[in-house]
Amino acid sequence: xxxxxxxxxxxxxxxxVQDDLVTIERVALADGSKKPLMKNEVVYILPSRKTADGRQxxxxxxxxxxxxxRADAQVYESTGGVGVGxxxxxxGEMLSAELGPGLLGMVYDGLQNPLESLAVSYGTFxxxxxxMAALDEEKHWPFKALMKEGDEVHAGDRLGTVxxxxxxxxxxxxxxxxxxxxxxxxxxxxFTVRDAxxxxxxxxxxxxxxxxxxxxxxQPVSRALVQQQRASREYPQTPLTTTLRLVDTxxxxxxxxxxxxxxxxxxxxxxLQGLIARYSDVDIVIVVAxxxxxxxxVETIKEFPEMSDPKTGGTLMDRTIIICxxxxxxxxxxxxxxxxxxxxxxxxxxxxxxxxxxxxxxxRWAQAMRETSGRLEEIPxxxxxxxxxxxxxKNVYERAGVIQRQDGSGKTGTLTMIGTVSPAGGNFEEPVTxxxxxxxKTFLGLSSERAYKRFYPAxxxxxxxxxxxxxxxxWFSKNLDSNWVxxxxxxxxxxxxxxxxxxxxxxxxxxxVTASDFIVSxxxxxxxxxxxxxxxxxxxxxxxxxxxxxxxxKLVEQVIQHTPADHPAETDGGKSALRDFYTRLTGKLxxxxxxxxxxxxxxxxxxxVITMLAAPADADDTVATQTTEEDAG
Length: 633
Hints:
alpha+beta; six-stranded antiparallel barrel; globular; 26 strands
């Protein structure tokens, strides 16, 4: 709450209260006029009952629906003690995010209140009706001007920069500027976010510029820049490298693209998204814990400041913002958290950075909308979700993308969004999952069956998909291999064929399949064990660069293309020998994954695999004995 809001007169009153939903009605001001009600406007409820220490509470509320003289609004706090007739003050502003230097490394709630500062001032249990500035208003930032007096400025243009963590933070002209403005004056030096550093003018109107600005969270920043021709939306054509073999090779996500990770509880969503956040080739990471269990949120807050960042050498928190809105917080605040995180992500995207936003979980965000919709008595859709669920999900995901700045800097910024979905019972047919799948272009479906087998990542390769291959084909052709897409397609087909044969063997036993089919199943199992699975707790295997992924894939393809020595495979003994052969190969390739890249152990294991493939039939047992003894030694 700003000082200007606290000076505003009472312009409405409470006429009904239902949980965290209230109905307000306009009242006449001192001059007899009435202030208009506006959808998504922020208003403040002032409960008549003061706190025990005599403090007046200001309960932040957002108008959802306007109906003549009245409006329905959702309260971002508990409504206990709020009564009919309590005064309401309209801010005249939409729910907005505060944008400026000092965002990185912060932990906010869904309304951008800094949780650490609140805890220091008010203790572990946060009081109701308290707001704090999102940015440190006392810290000084060294501002370096890029403009000079008389220069022409448009919305989003870079006026100057400050150093924030490991990044150059651009101080941009307000995104809501229209037309061409002129720099009247601009200063350089050390300033707080409250200080004016420049003044712009246009047709007699002047605006003083601070290091910070505000922007409504439900309006995309990129849309404002595109509409004013200060940026253009581009087609994503570069993959997001996560260093996870299964994602980068089989189910790639484009930079500026959209992906989702649905899965049942306990399938490893949190671990997977944590590794994607840590090792992806992006500049800024924003984690939105939207209605997650408090234990998981605390784990994230504790681990990120302690994790070393392979990109900067500092900690992962140095380039991360966490929006922490747990399931114990009010439902209404949970619904805003994704919009808040998206706006912060778009802000850094507008600077030309690659940003990754991870939302966990969009299911609870949708449940918050369902609760609010029910209280508004709207016509329900499937499973009582609002009828506009599908469009709401699309509106959020479609804010991701690639923008090319048209301000002369030539910078390109990307915003990639990955949302996790927690369908009840792992049912992917429920509305939230289905609406998400119709929106995103990469689907990483987690399987409880694979999780119980201790397969990590527990992504089921038979149900997952990526629709980015056609638009990333040129990048793969230029940077990896001209036949990359076809190679991956062939391996997918091998996995599918192997699964069919395994199902057949569950009914008929091994004796019910031919030798060639048995070999196919063994090769598919080797591909799964060696390439798709990755040890998240091994210092080497946890993160695999594309160069090493290519080398391993080539080696695995040699195994798949290899025709085993002529064993009497139609007998049980022959199939047992084949199984032993592929088991030994699997063991060596898994040990290869644990060996440092191009180290002595790596080169030795690589050569042993090649030797096994080249060995004649009568030498198989000899090679097996030798390699087993070497591994034991």
